[in-house]
Amino acid sequence: MDTRSEPDDSASLDRLQLLAAQDNSALLRSEERYHKMVEEVEDYAILLLDPNGRIMNWNKGAEKIKGYKEAEIIGRNFRIFYRPEDQERQLPEQLIQRARSTGKAIHEGWRVRKDGTTFWGSVVLTALHDDLKNVIGFSKVTRDLTERKVAEDKIQQYAKELEAQNRDLQQFAYAAAHDMKEPLRKVQFYTSSLLDGIGTQLPPKEKSYLERTVDAAHRMQGLIEDLLTYTRISGEVPPFEEVALTSLLEEVLSHHQETIESINAVIEADPLPVVPGITFQLRQLLDNLIGNALKYHHREKIPHIIIRSTFDNGKQNIIIQDNGIGFEPQNCKKIFEMFERLHGRESYPGTGIGLALCQRIVQNHHGTISATGQVGEGATFTITLPIAEAE
Question: What is the architecture, at CATH level 2, of domain 145-236?
């Protein structure tokens, strides 16, 4: 029998055993490095739980975040980290069950340290399975996000306080404006009576003073009415309903019919969509924009107003374009500021609240409004609103 191959087979076997030993050694070193890495992590509490939620191991991050030494906590149920009210409603058991059935449970909430203080923890609980897909335990990773939670709570508190202050301010503005109406009516009545009565007998200078007083009282009345409208629009937003903008536009154009005829304005209007909104606010929006287009018409042109609608990216655009006096392009955002006026009161009366009111209405409807213009060429206002959802 030829046995010359036996030394080679023996050498091959030795090499295989050596490679296997090296692989086992490398695997052991890899596992040691992995466990060392988990153990040394300090920003995260990393735990291993058995299938019933008892703690099997404990890293430095868990000791830092939760306050327990490893010897104090191993073998205890992770329920200990939850507040009594959370334990009573069985939140830990719910998370375990969720991880068992879906593979993972994610939760944020207040947790309890060893000394009884609480922290805001972000938790990921992951089910661990054997080769037969049986749950053999859970990994639990917790991060302390108390600073973020405190900052968010402060922001929410500031927002609530600011909302309350704004509400109080709106109520005060409304009450103040409303209370000014009655004495102002008396000023208007008496000054107008004087002007109609003895106005013709007054010297030109004194008559001019009285006329200016009447005019100032009239402008003050307009300002008060606009302020009352603005505070009403800025208050609590009522429930939305489906609003047919074509019908509202017809009402607005009818309201301005006398002005349209007096300046021979040409109105081109496409059918407008139905949008979710507040009827009286959207009527006010169209009324202000159409009124402005008529008021600021170019005296050397036939006034031409185009009203159209486009659909883009799930939004409805309402475009109102005129060929009036326009404005400087750099003022496209400035014109929406409260009391902002780009033209003299003598030529174009108004309070400077109209476009600020338009912007507030559009914001109430979760939309946007923008303007473009050129001096002497006209202005274009684009309102973007959500569309009504199909049933």
Answer: Orthogonal Bundle (1.10)
